[in-house]
Amino acid sequence: MDLRQLRNFVMVAEHASFTRAAKVLGVAQPAVSTAIKKLEKDLGLVLLHRQDKRVQLTAEGRELLPHAQAILQRVEQATQAMARLRDLDRGEVRIALPGMIGSYYFPALLMAFHHRYPDLKLSMVEAGTGEIRGMLERDEVDIGIIAEDGESFGLETVPLTRAEMVTAVGYEHPLSSQDEITWEEFFQHELVMFKRGYYHRELVHEIAQNGGFKPEIAFETNLIELIRSIVRQGFAITTVLKMVVDSDPEIKALPFKEPIHMDLHVGWKSGRALTQADRTFLDFLMEQKND
What we know:
Number of helices: 12
Largest sheet: 6 strands, mixed
Radius of gyration: 29 Å
Structural class: alpha/beta
Strand content: 15-25%
Oligomer: single chain
């Protein structure tokens, strides 16, 4: 039993005709008849009733049909997967990024990647770590940047970078005279924070619970520039990755007295074969990390 025999059998069964099956397959009708006879001989079973121009499945043929269809479908899927792995020139990498990372860590990297591989398409979406995990699981994106090791969530990950978290305050804010800050001091002031579901927000929520603090969240938004504007004007403070405010002359970055860092990882669905385009992008990230 080989794939050519199964393909001929499925075409005849689905079209109930040797003539139509031969036309679809682009071969002569005798070739189809010979392939079916060889399949029946190999199996020692009669698969088709042939009566005049009518063709009907026997009980054995009906049993074989769904298995044959499934085999051919899997072969087609494997063929397409191998084509994607091979097709670097027209490949696409679908990436999910957290807001802060997408705005301040990745732009230069993405431009450098595009310059090196101009024919590869990069499709990006912004989301929180929890949502990114779900998108990877549902195959909505190929690669995600997450703020944790994703092994316990069915993801394969490699470390990307470590970023320090700081408190961002405007220079008109009373805290701007300090050189560092404790979490107790942080939670005494009005806050502007990401919405729930972002790893950064969940981490702050966990710290508040563990320390018995009650955050006073005055503003919630996932818009980085709006957060920065609120902080600049002194309406509230926040905690962000240091890279977000490093180059802003109107915002002071206060390190925490006990430094806290966020470990960023590149993740993809466990067991999912990376395409050649995906692998090229991943190798590029690791190369830049080591430079």
